[in-house]
Amino acid sequence: MMRRLYIPQDTTARAVGADRLAGAWAKEPGLEIVRTSSRGAFYLEPLVETDGPHGRIGWPNAAEHDLSRILRGEGGTPIDTIPFLAGQTRVTFANAGVTRPLSLEDYRAHGGFAGLDAALRLAQEKIIEELSISKLRGRGGAAFPVGRKWQTAYETHADQKYVVANADEGDAGTYCDRMVMEGEPFRLIEGMLIAAYAVGATRGYIYCRYEYPAAVRALREAITILTEAGYLGEGALGCNARGGGGFTLEVFVGAGSYVCGEETALLQSLEGKRGMVQPKPPYPAVSGLYGKPTLISNVLTFATVPSILARGGVWHASLGTEHSKGTIALQIGGRVKQPGLAEVPFGLTVEAAIEEFGGGMATGARFKAVQVGGPLGSLFTKAGLKIRICYDEFARAGAILGHGGIVVFDQETDMVELARHFMAFTADESCGVCTPCRVGSVRAREILDGFAQGRGRPDDLNLLADLGETMKQTSLCALGQRAPYPVLTAIEHFRKEFK
Amino acid sequence: MSRITGILKRTEGCQPNILKTLLAIQSELGHVPPASVPDIAGALGVTDAEVAGVLSGYPDLRTEAPGRYVVRVCQGESCVANHCGRVLKELEKKLGIGLGGTTRDGRFTLEKVYCVGNCAASPTVMIGEDVHGRVTPEAAWALLQDCR
Asked: Were A227 and a residue from A104, A172, A232, A246 both cysteine, which residue would form a disulfide, CB within 3.0 to 4.6 Å?
């Protein structure tokens, strides 16, 4: 009898040995190896699974010599009893670790295209209404109401409209977009197809970062498969079912610029230009790529759309808190015991995210601070951990959720060095359009260099605060506006270290 | 130059896209020689300045040929929290080069990268397109020994 082993092929699973296992066991007789996506419980990777009587059985942190044990069924853990996974509300990541990323058959068998089918039965206005009811907000960081964006793109008349997925997941500490693109690219594309139909777009792009070669390959293969299956391409299903011109989709690879994650810079880059931030208005939904109405959203936003159409806007709005509906994909990393992706309804406290999902601190590590929301996110100390993960509470605290990254730092972290690192990042990545960001970030880094070398002056902290305020008030995009926050919160909480 | 001419020929008839063209050249040649800027500009119908502006605007576009193996040590926050600085220091010491440097034998170029999305298995080192996770300073050096 053929025995089946499931081994993830996600980048992180491969980075810790999944390919090595698959390669070593490939020649084993009577063994079928199925490469799936990853469950996102990355602390368990490589996580090898078999079929059990009541669902999958997992062998965490598997090594080559574990094969005989796995085949004998010794010591495995039923996947649904792993607290990290059992405590989550998986919607967008429901199939993570279950299906083969490029199997249309698997995708369909696990609810794929239910959202598109539902959308094609509705008028365009009704789809947009459903999204407005869902209260979905953009998952890239800006949290703009998605329904309103779609409405604008729909109402703007033009001979050509575009749908663009922002896959320039540049926020360090985040990887949920990468997981979608590598693990279930069809879900992203389904969301884009629904969007294209709703707003009347016939061309689309996925702007993916250079650092994600596996995602780029998966997306390109997925597009080929969906084109052959009649979902994509000129005159294909989707928009064409209502007399449109089909939907042609292309992957565009960036070249390492953080600021290209900002939508106006991204669209400049997509045109092949230097990625420079542009003033808004006009908003891309009115005048975007090549001056045409362009619906641009983050990967995770598009990937959330199919389940909203399949299950209804009311269902989505029933999850989360008053102003933050649905689920958030928390990406917990840094010095915790259990780094990985936790999809939960909004409203969990940061403390619970670290303790319940992160499993507390890694062995030998003591908590010092946590940064939420990527490289532009604020730092919190123990005293601030009761804050609930939702847009309004974070806004009130002057913090951001960004793209859902949570990075925990331990007692060995030098806060001056960390602050210097944050500013060096901004100085490296500033596009230069706004002087306060271009020059201010370099000046701030120089001041922090001074502290790092033990020649900080008392007045320097005031100068940093002043510089930060100017950057916040006068920069066009989030890079300049937000860059001071991690630095100023580091100073606020760890002032003694800055001398 | 003839290879560049070949790549430029392929862009004829498409909407001119500077970044896409530069990436195509880099994927074949490993870098974009600055001397080719006027040819690229000519083929795309844009100015030299526009091409040079794009070439200098993206960290991943190279104007010099890198070593056979490009080793990128991640400097994202999760890697920083997991003390990636120690990995970088070890490699700098063992290779005898700093960030941006290439070993004299042309085998390794050492660079930093801000996040490759492997944050749940930090620290991360990327060699070419291969991502390696939970890399200790010793493990990083061992990985380089496998690069022949």
From this structure: A232
**Token representation of residue A67:** 């094969």
User: Comparing C-alpha atoms, which of A247, A392, A379, A273 is closest to residue A322?
Assistant: A392
Q: CATH for A415-497?
A: 1.20.1440.230
pLDDT digits (tens, 9 = 90+) for A11-25: 999 999 999 999 999
| CATH of the structural domain A104-317, one choice from 3.40.50.1980, 1.10.1840.10, 3.40.50.11540, 3.90.850.10 | 3.40.50.11540
**What are the domain boundaries of chain A?**
3-86, 104-317, 327-410, 415-497
Model pTM score: 0.97
The mean-pLDDT minimum among A262-266, A323-327, B14-18, B109-113 falls in B14-18
> Per residue in A50-90, pLDDT tens?
999 999 999 999 999 999 999 999 999 999 999 999 999 99
Which one, of A376, A428, A380, A384, lies nearest residue A402 by Cα?
A376
- Closest in A15, A256, A272 to B59, CB measured: A256
CA distance A193 to A236: 11
Question: In the predicted model, is pLDDT for residue A244 greater than 70?
Answer: no
- Among A44, A207, A211, most B C-beta atoms within 10 A, so best to mutate, is A211
CB-nearest to A257 from B59, B80, B121 is: B59
Q: How far is A78 from chain B (nearest CA, A)?
A: 22
Q: How far apart are CA A211 and CA A219, in angstroms?
A: 14
Per-residue pLDDT tens over the stretch A87-130: 999 999 999 999 999 999 999 999 999 999 999 999 999 999 99
* Spans of chain B below 50 pLDDT: none
Tell me, what's the pLDDT at A2?
82
